[in-house]
TrEMBL record:
InterPro entries for the chain: AB_hydrolase_fold (IPR029058), Cholesterol_Oxidase (IPR052542)
Lineage summary: Eukaryota, Fungi, Dikarya, Ascomycota, Pezizomycotina
Swiss-Prot/TrEMBL cofactor(s): FAD
Protein name per Swiss-Prot or TrEMBL: AB hydrolase-1 domain-containing protein
Keyword Ribosomal protein: no
MF terms (GO), sorted A to Z: oxidoreductase activity
Gene3D superfamilies given in the database record: alpha/beta hydrolase
Keyword Flavoprotein: yes
Keyword entries, A-Z: FAD, Flavoprotein, Oxidoreductase
């Protein structure tokens, strides 16, 4: 699986560029309107900010949840910062470089232990469930939905929607969500939100929105995005 091969959101900007190139080849060179969500939006911002994706290819952008200034919600921030040894180090040491959102009968003892511990994952009573895949998604991403918005059939199939995450990508996400802006890959983690890079976005109209009951990213974080874009 390609996702297991240490690619990150910063690398994914190249996939976004390739997809836009294909659209331009097939449908002409008019600028396109884009809709970007969550970490896809982070990848898109990385490509626009560093110039990989030319700004004149873009007619406008609607961003859901985040753009170039990701800040983790409280529980995710605690997971990223708590203790002298980050959570990701334990996962990588005992579970390897890939954390799957699914669970099987062939899981290692470590993965089985994780499944049992996640029964005690802190959340509102109305969000507690017995779905192992749902628990594992919440551990690495934060809770991605309100259970009242999911029917039973959809909830049972969450393992088919989310495959997992490699530790290289998770390390980058944890770092960006802690410092509050997008960066390049390790080991330099060079910041991408310099005034020069933000100037590349000049003239692109943005529509930014996010849900108020967000357990992945901090609610209201668009204030920073809006300020940077207006500046």
């Amino acid at each position: 699986m390609v996702a297991e091969d240490n690619w990150t959101t910063f690398d994914a900007r190249l996939d976004i560029k390739a997809s836009i190139q294909w659209i331009r080849k097939e449908h002409g060179h008019d600028p396109i309107y884009t809709i970007a969500h969550c970490m896809g939006s982070v990848a898109f911002s990385s490509g626009l900010l560093d110039g990989t994706i030319p700004a004149n290819w873009i007619l406008g952008v609607t961003c859901s949840q985040v753009f170039m200034n990701p800040i983790w919600a409280t529980l995710n921030l605690a997971k990223a910062l708590a203790g002298p040894i980050p959570l990701i180090n334990y996962i990588k040491c005992f579970g390897g470089n890939w954390f799957s959102c699914s669970s099987t009968m062939e899981d290692s003892y470590f993965q089985q232990l994780v499944n049992q511990l996640l029964r005690f994952y802190p959340d509102a009573r109305c969000e507690i469930c017995n779905n192992v895949s749902c628990h594992r998604c919440s551990l690495i991403f934060g809770r991605l939905w309100n259970h009242n918005n999911l029917n039973e059939a959809t909830h049972r199939q969450t393992n088919r929607f989310f495959s997992g995450v490699n530790m290289t990508c998770l390390h980058l996400l944890m770092r960006m969500g802690t410092i509050g802006h997008v960066t390049g890959n390790a080991p330099l983690f060079h910041p991408l939100t310099s005034p020069k890079n933000i100037h590349r976005l000049k003239g692109i109209p943005f529509f930014l929105f996010s849900g108020s009951d967000n357990k992945v990213l901090k609610s209201g974080e668009y204030d920073k995005d809006a300020g940077d874009l207006e500046g």
